[in-house]
Amino acid sequence: MMKELLANKIENKTMTVGVIGLGYVGLPLAVAFSSAGYQVVGFDIDTEKVSQLNNGNSYIIDISDDALKTELASGFQATTDFSLLAEMDAISICVPTPLTKAQTPDISYIESAVSQINTYKRPGQLITLESTTYPGTTEELIERIFEQESYVVGVDYFLCFSPERVDPGNPVYNTKNTPKVIGGTTFACTALGKKLYEQVIPNMVAVSSPKVAEMSKLIENTFRSINIAFVNELAMLSDTIDVDVWEAIEAAGTKPFGFMKFQPGPGIGGHCIPLDPMYLSWKAKESNFYSSFIDLAQEINRLMPEVVIEKANDTLNTAKKALNGSRVLLLGVAYKQDIDDVRESPALEIYELLQERGAVVDVMDPFVATFRDAHGNTVETTNDTAYGDYDLAIMLTPHSAFDLPEIAAKSQLVLDTKNAFNAIEATNVYTMGKMAKNKQVPVYK
SUPFAM superfamilies, alphabetically (predicted)? Predict the structure, then answer.
């Protein structure tokens, strides 16, 4: 009976949808459900964010103020009042899943969200966890807690896991057109979850269980971590044996099968790739299985900021300068191009390491006005394009707003970690992966 009731509410657009966590994942999802005609309430513990949203001000790059205001006019609201969960027919959990200082899973945000749901739950609700986590979380955490309250999954309530696949700032793929995996604890759970999400994401992929869905997300990002580590190691090797790794990767990419192109860089950033593999590694260790491949990739990727520092020192040495006392400009602090997200950005560690080595460091990023350093201090970025005042400029995030010819022309020295200056012939630009022991490798046109 409850399944049919929820199915009818989905079809008739009379379902109320709650989204817990209004960040890069939750807010776009809430807006998508609202624009599809559902009554949506967004829940967050951050009063400032809630106030911003209710005033029509979006802090997420993928949601414009106009889009937000349209949904507010249609009934969307953000709140810190979790008692309203009792009024929701469906609840999606989109909270962070960071790591502890010991590099183990921190699921405290999930636990907090589940505690709130448990406090205000009522029969007939559909609950979907979207937060990336280790296989078994949905059943071990949510289902077991509800069992203690004599709530039977598939009868009294419905439970799914559907991993988020948000790529902030992606101009092609967004919440609505990215295929999405979903797995329920029972067939009825999967059917209802798929039916609801299909209202905003047409390409839903149903799997046999939450555990499979949880594992699928970790496979996606661990795959990326391992391959990025591989090309990062190739970049270090190429500098040693005098090979242009960027040209070699492009050449390998001409093979139409059996190869996927990845590119090296200064490290990995964002909330997924630096963290997700550690959830899988932790689960493996818990099961007395040592995932050497995963851990080795993490080790290489974590090493890259140190490699950048050494390359910066080598580049300065070509002008008989030392890192200690040099003025260094970091070009980009966001973890990837054309977004304002600095979470886990390797630029943050590079900033600290340069200062530890005695460099005087400024940061330029057209998308980031301020960021917090490792000590919690607020650092303002610069807009001053007097590149020649710096002994070295380091390209970390190649935002499209950067005028590369101007930077190359005005700078004394440039260290390029992303091959951004590939099309520019300049003897003062040194690129990781083709430095040839501190000698510029010519680009043949």
Answer: 6-phosphogluconate dehydrogenase C-terminal domain-like, NAD(P)-binding Rossmann-fold domains, UDP-glucose/GDP-mannose dehydrogenase C-terminal domain
**Distance of alpha carbon 321 from alpha carbon 198, whole angstroms:** 59
User: Measuring CA to CA, which residue among 5, 21, 36, 203 is closest to residue 113?
Assistant: 21
Structure tokens at 129: 């966890």
pTM for the model = 0.92
Q: Which residues form the catalytic set?
A: 272
CA dist 234 and 222 (Å) reads 18
Amino acid at site 390: Y
- How far apart CA 445 and CA 220 sit, in angstroms, is 36
Strand 392-395 to strand 414-416: parallel, antiparallel, or no bridges (unpaired)? parallel
Give the C-alpha separation, 275 to 269, whole Å. Answer: 9
Pairwise CA distance, residues 74 & 90, whole Å = 18
Architecture of domain 224-431: 3-Layer(aba) Sandwich (3.40)
Report the alpha-carbon distance of residue 175 to residue 100 in Å, rounded.
28
Q: Do 283 and 132 contact (CB within 8 A), yes or no?
A: no
CATH number assigned to the domain covering 2-208: 3.40.50.720
* Residue pLDDT, tens place only, 175-228: 999 999 999 999 999 999 999 999 999 999 999 999 999 999 999 999 999 999
Instruction: Give me 188's structure tokens.
Output: 């009825």
Q: How far apart are CA 128 and CA 29, in angstroms?
A: 12
Using alpha carbons, select from 101, 83, 99, 103 the residue that is nearest to residue 41: 83
